[in-house]
Design a protein that fits this description.
Distance between the termini: 56 Å
Number of strands: 26
CATH architecture of the largest domain: 3-Layer(aba) Sandwich
Helix content: 25-40%
Structural class: alpha/beta
Strand content: 15-25%
Low-confidence stretches: none
Strand order of the largest sheet: 3-2-12-11-13-14-15-16-17-21-20-19-18
Mean pLDDT: 87
C-alpha cells in the first residue's frame, strides 16, 4: 500500500516522468536527505513561478532555492554551522525564516522552532535546557536575548546594515564552498510556551512517514486544484511548518505575513485571490466579523490547532459555502484526523475520520479499546515521533469517542474532565449547548470545587453585542437541554474571552479569574 501511495504522491508532484525522476535523483545526490532536496526539486519543476510572498518581497522558486543555498554556505563559512548543532529560531512569519529553515536543514543541524511570544523567563529556560549553538531572531526580540545572557553566535532575521539573514545572502565568500551531502537533523516543535512550561516534540521528517497525511490532505481537501495559499497560522507551530513544506512540494504560491490582524488578512486574501487558507478558528471568526466579502475567493479553509466552534462552522457554510475543513493532530503525533466539508455537514461537532494508515485508538480507563460511542483517550502510534522508537502508543491527553459511522468526536482534555457526584462531566458538552443560544457569542466552561458534589461546572459567557442577557434566563433556557449534573453552578458574563497567541482558549487564565 505504501508503494501505491508513494506513486500517487510522486505523480502529483510531477516526479514520475523521466525528467522528474532525474530531478529527484540529482537532488538527493547533491544534497542528501533534507528539506533542501525538496526545495531543489520544486525549483527544477516550478522555476520562475512565485514561491513566496511576504510583507516585503516576492520570491520565485529559483530565487528561494539559490538564496537558501547561498545562505547555507555563508552560515558554514562565517559561523561554522554544521550537523549536530542546535539552531533556535525566534521568528514570526517572513521570508528570512523560510530561507533560514531550508539553509540550516541543508547543513544537517537541528532546528528548534521557538514561540516569539514567549516571556523572557521562558526563553531563558529554553537556553538553559538546550544550549543553542546559534540563534536566528527578529530584531524586536533582541532585548529578551540580551537579558538572558546568551553568549554564542546569533543573527537577526532582518536589518538594514547589521549582520542579518537578508544581508548574509549578499555576502561574498572568501573561497568556493562545497556543501557535502547531509541527513536532516531533527525539527523540534515546542508545545505551549506562552501560558506555561513548554514541552518538546522532536520530529525526523521522512517522505514515507508523511505519506498517509500527505495523501489524505491532497485527496480529501483537494489541494492540488487550488492556488494560491495563505498560511495565516504561525510557521513556528507544527501545523504551520507542515503545511509550508506541503505547499512548497506542490509548487503553490505561498502568502505569509509577520502577524495576524483580521483587516490585513482579509486584504491579502482579496488582493491575491487566495483559494486556500490555514487558520485556527479564532482567525476565521475575526475575518468573518471584519468583512466576509473579502473571503469569497476561498475554496478551502483548513482550520486546526484549536476546538472548532459549531456556531462558527454554520456561519462559514452560510456566508462562504461548503469550504470549511477541520484538522485534528498534536505536536507529537502530527495530523491524525480530518473532517472534510462534507464530514462537517454530517455533524458540525465532529473532528472527522481517521487518516488511513495512521494507527489511532480510543482507550478507556483500563487501557482497553473503547466501544463505539464510549468516551476514552485518543492514543496514536506515530512513525515520525522520536518518542515512538519502540512503537509505543502515545497518549494525546484528549478525550473523545468514535461513532458507528467512523466519525470521531472530541470531549475535551483529560485534565478538564469533572467528576460531579460520581458522574463524569465534560465541559465541552455544555459549551456546545450554550453556544447554540442566539444571544451568546462565545463560551467557555471549567470545573470548580464544590462542597456538596465534589466538583461542578462554571460557565463563562460572552454575550452578543447589545444583548441584555441575565443569568437566570440562561439557566431557564439550559435546564431542558442538559442533564442535571451538566447544569453549571455559576454563570459569569465577560466582555472578552482570553486566548493564547496561537488562538487557543486560555482556560488557565479563566481559572485564575475572580467571580
Amino acid at each position: 500500500m505504501n508503494i501505491l501511495k508513494l506513486i500517487f504522491v510522486l505523480y502529483k508532484i510531477k516526479l514520475l516522468s523521466p525528467l522528474g525522476l532525474y530531478r529527484l535523483l540529482a537532488a538527493i545526490s547533491k544534497n542528501g536527505i533534507n528539506i533542501m532536496t525538496l526545495l531543489q526539486i520544486a525549483k527544477g519543476t516550478y522555476g520562475n513561478k512565485v514561491a513566496l510572498v511576504d510583507d516585503n518581497e516576492t520570491i520565485s522558486y529559483n530565487q528561494l532555492f539559490f538564496q537558501s543555498e547561498k545562505l547555507s554556505m555563508v552560515l558554514l563559512e562565517k559561523y561554522g554551522l554544521s550537523g549536530g548543532q542546535k539552531v533556535g529560531f525566534l521568528c514570526k512569519n517572513h521570508a528570512s525564516l523560510v530561507r533560514s529553515i531550508f539553509a540550516v536543514s541543508r547543513l544537517g543541524a537541528d532546528i528548534y522552532l521557538l514561540n516569539p511570544e514567549m516571556s523572557q523567563n521562558q526563553f531563558k529556560s529554553q537556553l538553559e535546557k538546550h544550549h543553542f549553538d546559534f540563534l536566528v531572531y527578529d530584531p524586536e526580540l533582541r532585548t529578551i536575548i540580551e537579558h538572558a545572557n546568551y553568549t554564542k553566535e546569533m543573527v537577526m532575521s532582518y536589518h538594514d546594515h547589521l549582520p542579518a539573514i537578508n544581508q548574509l545572502m549578499t555576502t561574498n565568500l572568501i573561497k568556493e564552498i562545497k556543501l557535502h551531502r547531509t541527513s536532516m537533523g531533527k525539527i523540534m516543535l515546542m508545545t505551549g510556551g506562552t501560558t506555561g512550561k513548554s514541552k518538546e516534540a522532536p520530529h525526523k521528517p521522512s517522505l514515507f512517514h508523511y505519506l498517509n497525511p500527505f495523501v489524505s490532505l491532497l485527496t480529501r481537501l483537494k489541494l492540488i486544484k487550488y492556488n494560491p495559499v495563505y498560511i495565516a497560522t504561525p510557521i513556528y507551530h507544527g501545523y504551520g511548518v507542515a503545511v509550508l513544506f506541503l505547499f512548497i512540494a506542490l509548487g503553490k504560491k505561498v502568502v505569509i505575513s509577520k502577524g495576524f490582524q483580521a483587516q490585513k488578512a482579509c486584504q491579502l486574501i482579496r488582493e491575491h485571490k487566495v483559494q486556500v487558507v490555514t487558520v485556527v478558528p479564532l482567525m476565521i471568526h475575526k475575518m468573518l466579523k471584519h468583512n466576509a466579502e473579502d473571503l469569497k475567493s476561498l475554496s478551502c479553509i483548513a482550520s486546526g490547532g484549536a476546538q472548532l466552534n459549531p456556531k462558527l462552522a454554520d456561519e462559514v457554510f452560510h456566508k462562504l459555502g461548503i469550504v470549511l475543513c477541520n484538522l485534528y493532530g498534536t505536536s507529537e503525533t502530527g495530523l491524525n484526523i480530518i473532517a472534510a466539508p462534507q464530514d462537517l455537514k454530517y455533524s458540525v461537532h465532529t473532528i472527522g475520520k481517521r487518516i488511513n494508515g495512521v494507527p489511532l485508538k480510543v482507550l478507556d480507563q483500563n487501557k482497553d479499546e473503547a466501544e463505539d460511542g464510549t468516551i476514552g483517550q485518543f492514543c496514536v502510534k506515530s512513525k515520525w515521533s522520536f518518542r515512538n522508537r519502540k512503537a509505543s502508543w502515545i497518549e494525546t491527553g484528549d478525550l473523545g469517542y468514535r461513532d458507528h459511522n467512523g466519525y470521531y468526536f472530541l470531549c475535551g482534555r483529560k485534565d478538564d474532565m469533572v467528576v460531579s457526584a460520581g458522574e463524569n462531566v465534560y465541559p465541552i458538552e455544555l459549551e456546545q449547548v450554550l453556544i447554540q443560544h442566539n444571544l451568546i457569542e462565545d463560551v467557555a466552561v471549567i470545573g470548580m470545587n464544590d462542597e456538596q458534589f465534589g466538583q461542578r461546572l462554571k460557565a463563562f459567557v460572552k454575550p452578543m453585542r447589545h444583548a441584555n442577557l441575565k443569568e437566570e434566563e440562561i439557566f431557564e433556557w439550559l435546564r431542558p437541554r442538559v442533564a442535571r449534573f451538566q447544569v453549571p453552578k455559576e454563570i459569569v458574563f465577560i466582555d472578552q474571552m482570553p486566548y493564547t497567541p496561537l488562538g487557543k482558549l486560555d482556560k488557565k487564565r479563566l481559572k485564575n479569574m475572580e467571580g
